[in-house]
Amino acid sequence: MPKKNAFYAQSGGVTSVINASACGVIETARKHKSEIGKVYAGRNGIIGALREELIDTSKESRSAIHGLLTTPSGAFGSCRHKMKTIEENRAEYERLIEVFKAHNIGYFLYNGGGDSADTCLKVSQLSEAMGYPLQAIHIPKTIDNDLPHTDNCPGFGSVAKYIAISTREAALDVASMCESSTKVFILEVMGRHAGWIAASGGLAAEQEGDAPHIILFPEIAFNREKFLAKVKRTVKKNGYCVIIASEGAQYKDGSFLAESGLKDAFGHSQLGGLAPNLAQMIKDEHGYKYHWAVADYLQRAARHIASQTDLDQAYAVGEAAVEMALEGKNSVMPCIVRGKGKRYRWSIGEAPLDEVANVEKMMPRSFITRDGFNITQAAREYLEPLIQGEAYPEYKNGMPKYVRLKNQLVPKKLAKGFKV
């Protein structure tokens, strides 16, 4: 019997270290040549499997694959394709199995967040129902840090580092200008339901009075009067006010402050425009001059200032996914386990997918100050280890040196195509 091949795909919003997980997968698989044939990567995520667009990673040199460690974005392309339930669209799942059979794929390694965990679980269930042997392993990735059963999520630590640094640098700028110019600066960050990214901005503060002075969390209902009063007190005391606003900030009734009315491919509300809305609110009430910025893609693409801890963990979960698959495990996710004690230690554990899929881990209330506007010491102790270490890429001509893969496709074996 020929050796089984592996299929790896990246899903959802990419991160500055998701390619490190890909590197972990491919390098580990290459060490097990007697057990794994080739590693195929889906072009543009799961869509690549449905269209039978499989990238042959064996065509890439050892140095190119290793270069993924320091290259941001998704090297093979990602997607926001939401697979429905098996009952709603069985044809998609059967198509996956058909493609896997045609290319002798026995390992399904899906790198993504909560929706990806759900897809991985469904693929595992269908392969079992259809009698096709397949080890389905979910590789965690999300800047939102909201997956359960893992201490933190690869991709988050680097975003946290970027936001904390950006907050401190912008705050110094505002502080130097506030006497005769800007008095309010607002940084809008990602985070639909969980305020982990916004919380990371709190690491910028070293002593009392330091920025950020206000953090808006999705977990804390927004109160306009309370917010505006806090801004006024802060400006009066410090001369300026720095605000970190999570895009998912919402009112008591659950409606978002910045909901556009549109939906994305996963059915989530499209958010945007929170920072200018808040700035105008402050201008109308207090007349303060303001500036605002939206971190947007910059926060998740900033490989130049990635966390070494995050990079190490991203590689480790990719490596562990291959090892779990070879051990015959199925429908599981390698997770990060924090050790006990004051000194930060971590190891790789294992979580069942049926307890991960479609579950969001919110900020604990104990991580947010009583007034709802900042982080506690407990939050700081949780967050600080995740941003430790600087994983600088190599530079050439003053610019980061990132790899570009050949991404050569395998010849198709199925005569019939599939529309996605």
Shape: elongated
The major β-sheet equals: 5 strands, mixed
Helical stretch tally: 12
CATH architecture grouping of the largest domain: 3-Layer(aba) Sandwich
Percent of residues in β-strands? 15-25%
CATH class of the largest domain: Alpha Beta
N-to-C order of helices and strands: EHEHEHHEHEHEHEHEEEHEHHEEHEE
Briefly note the structural class of the backbone.
Answer: alpha/beta
**Average pLDDT value?**
95
Low-confidence stretches: none
Strand arrangement across the biggest beta sheet:
3-2-1-4-5
Distance between the termini: 32 Å
Q: What is the count of structural domains?
A: 2
| Structure summary, number of beta strands | 15
Radius of gyration: 23 Å
Percentage of residues assigned to helices: 25-40%
According to CATH, the fold-level topology of the largest domain is: Rossmann fold
Summarize the structure in words:
Strand 4, helix 5 (114-129) and strand 5 form a beta-alpha-beta unit. The protein has 12 helices and 15 strands. 33% of the residues lie in helices and 18% in strands. It starts with a strand and ends in a 20-residue tail after the last strand. The strands form 5 sheets. A 5-stranded mixed beta sheet has the order 3-2-1-4-5, sandwiched between helices. Strands 7-8-6-11 form a 4-stranded parallel beta sheet, with helices on both faces. The chain has a two-stranded antiparallel sheet with strand order 9-10. Helix 4 packs across helix 5 (114-129). The chain folds into 2 domains: 4-147 and 306-358 and 391-400, Rossmann fold (3-Layer(aba) Sandwich), CATH 3.40.50.450; 156-304 and 368-387, Phosphofructokinase domain (Rossmann fold, 3-Layer(aba) Sandwich), CATH 3.40.50.460. It is of the alpha/beta class and 420 residues long. It is elongated, with a radius of gyration of 23 Å. The chain has helices spanning 18-31, 46-50, 62-66, 90-102, 114-129, 156-177, 196-200, 224-238, 274-286, 296-301, 308-326, 377-383, and strands at residues 4-10, 36-42, 54-56, 105-112, 135-140, 184-189, 214-216, 241-246, 259-263, 269-271, 290-294, 332-338, 346-352, 395-396, 399-400.
